[in-house]
């Protein structure tokens, strides 16, 4: 298989893994006051160490901590920014009739970055990575706008809000770099609002025109990463929702493809293409750079059944009608546990999925 020394890799993954039973029990014990923060972190350390070793054994080049220290893929990071806090909501987010825990985030003061617990989390992963690349995932800056309850008393001016969020992310990215991070991924479900008629209605209900909002999202990403060091790779994963093997949004990339594929300045895009819900590959025609890596999520992380390798290979060839084959990589369409509850499949099935990605990539990218 074609080899690279930095991500994204020809066989890659989004980042989160199913939480082991021992870790779930320990988090519950901490919640009930039965163990201390230090005792929980020691268990997390042990389980992350096992996870990293497993990722190496199955053949991945990039290793993550599986988001094992988090309850949520986004709230845990965002709530530790200056001016943001986690709070209890009246109800959770609806995923096709399945509801998450009733949590949210709100902006109560000017947003900034002044250190973050996940910097230490990254350092622990970095020390385990060895010859492999340590990949770390954080939510996109758009997620604070998209999921945050923003006080109008703090930010009456939308541009001032985005200015502060961008500056905070610039500081965060530099802090991760200084800690040794060279492969950072921004996870983003906000873009999915463009993909369906229902989402388009949500945009207008919030007082925006679609192109206006797309420009805002593009600005937030591009300006957040514009000062990144040259040897740091920053990718973005665009998701339609992933909770207990369900989803929120449907629709292809068409309505935002001009911005996603033609204007974003990330090094790579992790894209959901695991079923008809994600549309076809034609939007890839808007790709204007031959250095943009496209990680196609053709293997679902939602269910354990393995996809037909021949069909997956055929779809990779189909995508190559629109972009250079050297720009294409393969991965699951999302992580296996965007929240601590995890998707509905076993750990054995999870690793079979990862091996499936690697085996197919080895066959195709020779």
From TrEMBL:
- Known PANTHER family for this protein? METHIONINE SYNTHASE
Give one Pfam hit by family name: Meth_synt_2
Q: What is this protein called?
A: 5-methyltetrahydropteroyltriglutamate--homocysteine methyltransferase
What's an example of a GO molecular-function annotation for this chain?
A: 5-methyltetrahydropteroyltriglutamate-homocysteine S-methyltransferase activity
Q: Which UniProt keywords apply?
A: Methyltransferase, Transferase
Which NCBIfam families does this one have? PRK06520.1
CDD domains listed in its UniProt record: CIMS_C_terminal_like
Tell me, what is an example of a GO biological process annotation in this record? methionine biosynthetic process
UniProt key word Transcription: no
InterPro entries to which the protein is assigned, alphabetical: Met_Synth_C/arc (IPR002629), UROD/MetE-like_sf (IPR038071)
């Amino acid at each position: 298989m074609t080899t690279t020394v930095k991500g994204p890799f020809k066989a890659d993954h989004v980042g989160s893994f199913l939480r082991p039973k021992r870790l779930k029990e320990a988090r519950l014990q901490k919640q009930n006051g039965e163990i201390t923060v230090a005792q929980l972190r020691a268990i997390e350390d042990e389980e992350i160490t096992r996870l990293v070793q497993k990722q190496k054994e199955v053949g991945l080049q990039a290793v993550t901590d599986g988001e094992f220290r988090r309850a949520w893929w986004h709230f845990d990071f965002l709530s530790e920014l200056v001016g943001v806090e986690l709070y209890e909501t009246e109800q959770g987010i609806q995923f096709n009739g399945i509801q998450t825990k009733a949590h949210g985030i709100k902006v109560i003061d000017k947003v900034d970055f002044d250190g973050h617990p996940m910097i230490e989390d990254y350092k622990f992963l970095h020390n385990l990575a060895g010859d492999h690349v340590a990949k770390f995932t954080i939510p996109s800056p758009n997620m604070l706008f998209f999921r945050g309850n923003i006080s109008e008393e703090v930010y009456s001016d939308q541009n001032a809000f985005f200015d502060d969020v961008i500056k905070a992310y610039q500081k965060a990215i530099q802090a991760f770099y200084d800690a040794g991070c060279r492969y950072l991924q921004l996870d983003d479900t906000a873009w999915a609002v463009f993909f369906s008629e229902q989402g388009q209605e949500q945009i207008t209900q919030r007082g925006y025109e679609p192109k206006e909002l797309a420009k805002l999202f593009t600005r937030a990403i591009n300006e957040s990463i514009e000062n990144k060091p040259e040897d740091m790779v920053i990718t973005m994963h665009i998701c339609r929702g992933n909770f207990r093997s369900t989803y929120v949004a449907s629709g292809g990339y068409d309505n935002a493809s001009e911005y996603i594929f033609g204007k974003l300045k990330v090094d790579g895009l992790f894209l959901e293409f695991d079923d008809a819900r994600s549309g076809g590959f034609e939007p890839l025609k808007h790709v204007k750079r031959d250095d943009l890596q496209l990680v196609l999520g053709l293997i679902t992380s939602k269910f354990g059944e393995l996809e037909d390798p021949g069909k997956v290979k055929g779809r990779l060839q189909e995508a190559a009608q629109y972009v250079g084959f050297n720009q294409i990589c393969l991965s699951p369409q999302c992580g296996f546990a965007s929240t601590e509850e995890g998707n509905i499949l076993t750990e054995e099935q999870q690793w079979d999925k990862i091996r499936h990605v690697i085996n197919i990539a080895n066959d195709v990218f020779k």
